Amino acid sequence: MERLVIVTGANSGIGLALCERLLTEDTGVHLCLACRNMQRAEAARSALQASHPGAHVDLLQLDVGSVQSVLTAAQELRARYSKVDFLYLNAGIMPNPQVDFKALFKGLFSRNVIHMFATAEGLLTQQDRVNSDGLQEVFTTNLFGHFLLIRELEPLLCQSDHTSSVIWTSSSNARRSAFSLEDIQHKEGKEPYSSSKYASDLLSLALNQHMNNQGLYSSVVCPGMVMTNLTYGILPPFFWTLIMPIMWLIRLFTNTFTITPFNGAEALHWLFLQKPQSLDPRSKYHSLTSGLGKNYTQPRKMDVDDLMSKTLYLDLIELEKEVRRDL
Ligand SMILES: NC(=O)C1=CN([C@@H]2O[C@H](COP(=O)(O)OP(=O)(O)OC[C@H]3O[C@@H](n4cnc5c(N)ncnc54)[C@H](OP(=O)(O)O)[C@@H]3O)[C@@H](O)[C@H]2O)C=CC1
Ligand SMILES: CC(C)=CCC[C@@H](C)[C@H]1CC[C@H]2C3=C(CC[C@]12C)[C@@]1(C)CCC(=O)[C@@H](C)[C@@H]1CC3
Known about the structure:
It is built from 13 helices and 10 strands. The protein is α/β, with parallel strands linked by helices. The relative contact order is 0.13. Pathway: Steroid biosynthesis; estrogen biosynthesis; Steroid biosynthesis; zymosterol biosynthesis; zymosterol from lanosterol: step 5/6.
């Protein structure tokens, strides 16, 4: 039977590469590209249909950073479809990134150099802002908008005799110490990206605990270090041109430098082929590329605990009530 796959942030980078790979895997797949910019979404659909003539590709206007847009988009999805098989929560932002060059230089000569290049730990800060809903923009885009979307799509995701998969594009940059239950939106700190990705790891665990019995399964993925609009935004273009040979060299020493969106989409694609019941809710599934260019997926245990994940889940439900009240 035709499977319906919704991908947020599908017009570029890892999301678009995933769509290409899914259509190559299964020409019968029914894709829905959920994007904030319809011109870019149209361009993505044209590219997909050029390489896969006759592919079934729908478009949906969705800005996950806006509560009203999520509610409107979910209403449209409920009107269009009777069930959802895969929901890839992939849209994400890292606004105004700053690289700590002192830490980078120090790290280059430390024993942690591989870890530093795999996770960017201690290297990156961002400048967040408050959106028109009065919420932190990174938190809303990377986490809360997607949470709201799941809640709104429950009738399509949770059905008897049917399982559905929700797959978060998280990151190895997710770090417990960047996240606080006292400040889930990360209003205070300078690492909203890391905080939001750690929150998605926690939330995925909670979703499994609350919703497996309704047929919904959640997983998290790290695509590795991929050259996309998000990464190109971190340094000026001339700098990237300068260090690109170094990036390919680093790839020989670490399997986390997947570099191309096709490689980065490896674990997202791999999860499409698995039975959701067979997956480990406490593992993050990493896209990896060997020095010789072989792609593979590897589960790695996450640094998450049940109490934190449950508390975050309840806090998000509370926040959901508040934003609905304020609409
Ligand atoms: N690149 C990397 O090395 C890594 C990336 N990731 C994660 O992968 C995911 C995909 O990013 P990547 O492909 O790298 O980067 P891109 O910038 O290419 O893709 C991000 C996508 O998200 C969309 N998006 C951003 N904000 C919104 C919004 N408010 N509503 C709807 N769509 C939105 C973008 O749309 P638009 O074109 O309109 O901006 C774009 O399609 C992100 O979640 C990112 O955090 C994780 C680890 C590493
Ligand atoms: C090669 C030299 C000398 C400099 C480049 C340093 C950084 C710009 C680069 C090193 C590790 C990278 C990295 C990411 C972005 C670019 C780096 C900081 C990510 C943060 C991108 C988004 C993610 O989610 C992470 C998994 C990436 C981790 C590694």
